[in-house]
Amino acid sequence: MATVKVNNLRKSFGNVCAVAGISFEVEEGEFVTLLGGSGCGKTTTLRLIAGLEENDEGQIVLADQIVSNPAAGKFVPPEKRKLGMVFQSYAIWPHMSVFENIAFPLKVRRLPSDQIRKQVEEVLTMVGLPELGLRMASRLSGGQQQRVAIARALACNPSILLMDEPLSNLDAKLRERMRFELREMQTRFGIATLYVTHDQAEAMVLSDRIIVMNEGRIEQVGTPWDIYEHPQSEFVSDFIGVANLLEAVVEESQAEGCRLKVLGNGRTITVDRRVANATQALLLIRPENVQLGTLQELPAENTWPAKVDLAAYFGDHREYVLRDGDLTIRAKTGPKFVFQRGDSICAHFSPENIVLVPKQGNSRANAQM
Amino acid sequence: MIRLRTVLATGLLILVAFLVLPPFLMLFVGSIWGAPPGMPGRLSLSAYIDAFSSPYTYKVIANSFFLSFVKTTLATIWGVVLAWLVTRTDVPLRRTMEVLIPVQFFIPAIFNALAYLMLLNPHSGIVNQLFMGAFGLESAPFNLYSYTGMIFVMALGSTAFIFLLTYGAFRALDPSLEESARTCGAGTLETLVRVTLPLVAPAIGGAFILSFIQGIEAFEVPVLIGTPAGIYVFTNEIYRAITFFEPARYGVATALGITIVLLTFAMVYVQWRIQGDRQYFTITGKGYNPRLVRLKHWRWPAFIFGALYIVLAVVLPIGQLLLSSLQSNVGVLTFESFTLKHYYQAFRDDMVLRALYNTLILAVLAAVGGVILSVLIAYVTARLNFWGKRWLELLSWLPWTLPGIVLATGMLWAYLTIPGLWIFYGSLWILFIAYIIKGLPLGVRALSGTMVQVHQELEDCARVHGASWLRTLWSVVLRLIRPGLLSGAIFFVFIAIRDLSTPILLYGYGTEVLSIVLLQFWAEKPPQVVSVLAIIMLAVLTGFSAIQRILLIEKERPETIEGRVPPEMGRL
Question: What residues of chain A lie within 8 A of the CB of B562, using their CB?
Fold first, then answer.
């Protein structure tokens, strides 16, 4: 049974279309992330589900109850949707103590005070902040505010937890640690979570499924592995991770593989799959799948000479920008591969690591396959 | 789907329209009615023809503009220099000056005018006596009943106003902007002229226009100093037209009133064009530690410049009125001659007690009513998606163009002629309504300024977690803007206590307020009694400010009780 069911959701602000008819579901206990750049409609989608904005078209179902359907004149205000939500700024009320902040959702529901006390203490312990209840909320560190916001969102046992970029205000170190903690908490509580972020690493670590959004539409839905390994559009392959995208013309296509000519440097490349009824193809090669070395060290097939344009050392790895004709290729190697700027070397792409990306235009047809 | 909040907002719009529009409409109707309010009249432009065919009217207009322009120019120079000195230089005692200069802002204009009338009295005024004694003069060297005298007293008040408005801009200025000019090779003076001043120029320009409008609208100094000197400007001329002649010349008064409204409208428009959205300075909480300009041998002259203002604007007025309230005989300054008998007398005077009671009641009512109305308007315009939001904004801003005396003229017409509004005439309610109208423009602006600082997510969060729209307004928004509510309240309190021009046409027997009695006593009673009343007014003001401070502190108590958190607990 799906906890959230969104069907053909649409929302415009004036002439700007923020959400252009999207549909998706969040299953019970599932962690789903809406991922996309700024202005892609991810936050609007979340606010529509929360009821903080009203959708123009489409239907939202939360826990089997229709909460919004403009066609039927149905709109349940946010306070009646029984949600938990964590905001980007945490929205911790500075005029209340930690206890009062967390008790607020329970108080407005007129629960008896001893039960409120019990529930707040419970949830504070769950997020790892027992004995902090009396502290004024304005005197918390970023990480503590984060936990209080989560505790407040969970306080009245909502059927779904909404999170709007909750980690973006933390410093880099803490953010990285909170990713794991969030995931761990969510698994422990087993609550369906819809999470919004622009940070793809965050989405990869946290999610059961990722919904990649672009210009108000869904580009692709899938597990982090799917999204990274089998992007269904040029946008997704470029947005998730670093991508070398090569445009190529099919020269010969057979069942066990095909040969293509890459535009930009005119070299041939072979792939171990067939390109379905097309003369052009988009090839995705991740930088970590580019092998570097001398001509002798590398297999003969799919090996090109290239010049090192830029070399950077990251401690745990090195990155290079290579040039061959008009083509630039990014490569990522272990720290032991040392090349200098200006070196002439060779790059190899093994056929099984080359991904065929559906060209823009037929990408949506492919996404629904 | 019609929502409760749309219904409420529409109700609010109608209420504000009922408050604000009648004085405007009736001012206009009055100017073409051709008869006093309540009398049968017929359409005629005779009031305008009378007013604008007489060269005297142009003299009045010229006087208004001349006086206001000169006093504003003086005050701007004075105020900006003071603001720069205390924020950006190493002038001695700058922290003390920073506290003392704004005290003048707190002193009512009527208080200033009366104090200087006593200080520069040709016979008993201390200043004149000192100069006459010191230089062996035959007659008093200073005469306050002149253009110069009016300009001086008005400029005193405006200087503190300009100081407060530009002070924020000097503080908020990022010091690195000045420092980078220094590193590029500009000297102290060049940095000041080419970087600092241009950066604060919009603030200075805005403050200038606001102060200029205030100068046109000023009533206390024109009526107390101008009228006896035979110098008439818009405001004391309107007052004269209504109270001096029999029958009252309502036509001329309303025609002049309409003129002033239109001129103010034009000036406010200019101000908007100059300032755009920069009407408010967000003073960031960052602990900027700007490099102070070293004045070197100018330090002490600069100090004297600042101290002189404090003496003229704060020490002398308060000192004079305090002293004379305690004197048994005017001009006698011996220790034995001090007495509290004028205070005893004042507190046994029925009219004083009644005025004090009325003023206190009105101050509290205006504060409560004004803040509730302002906060609702601010909330609707800043936060709700309401069809009439622009109208509400416009209506709440409109009274900004109404000087107190013109507002009073319009109210007089409206509440004498519109059936149903009669019942308010002659009661405290008409004063209450007038104060609310007068305070609305700034009250709404101040509160919407605070409101926009409340992050939208703080509200959204309450909604999502089960609070209705009203509950959110009550438990989150209002609690968070509490300091703003308190300063809004004190603002309405100040209007109710200090203003003379609004009640002067609207009070009746039994509804006198302090400022009215002060004016009457000035005409009838010895200066000691007047001083007592002025001191009472100042004490009431101080009392309300103290209450505001205490309420502000109360708010912070939970945190102080909780004590300091060890720094390591602040981290995860």
Answer: 134-136, 139
